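Entry 14. Structure prediction run on the chain below.
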Amino acid sequence: EMLLLEIEHRVKNNFATVASMLRLQIRETQSSETTLELQAALGRVESFARANTSLYRNFFHTGTIDMGVYLRELCGSLQASFGLDNEIRFHCEAASVQLPRDRAILIGLLVNEVANNSVKHAFDDQAQGQISVRFDEQANDFCLSVSDDGRGMKDGTRDGALGMTLLDALATQANGTVEIESSSSGTRFTFALEK
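Output returned:
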């Protein structure tokens, strides 16, 4: 247990250093587009960092992560990464399901990519908005949905082909598929993930 705590402490410090450098770059940049890209990178780092913290929290389940705790903490980190001036709020409902660390990280990255996509494209000049994350266990699979109450997508697509390509790749790697629903009242990404 002492060795695991020492490893966790060192890895946590490394993640914190990388996150701090990204935050410094976010504060220094003058480009809003660059800021959003750096926030996306910061969210990816936070996804790994939160999984790492969850992994070492319970010595009896060192190979698995409680998805309820992990996703709620991740959403809190994403909320913080967009700054206090941003009126976009995160809401998370996640079942307390134990999943292997690597799969949990993939799911966290899916949440991060969709959330960043929403922040970049869904809200425009709206005064406020909400991004909702839900994770449930069903009979034959797990269901992850990430939705926003923004302006919706034109023709079922948004700018940023890299983000959508990355989403497809992450969903496949997580043994899942993605469906997208969009209207003028918002967009929902639903991932069906095999058990």
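The chain has a mean pLDDT of 84.
Filed with the rest of this week's runs.
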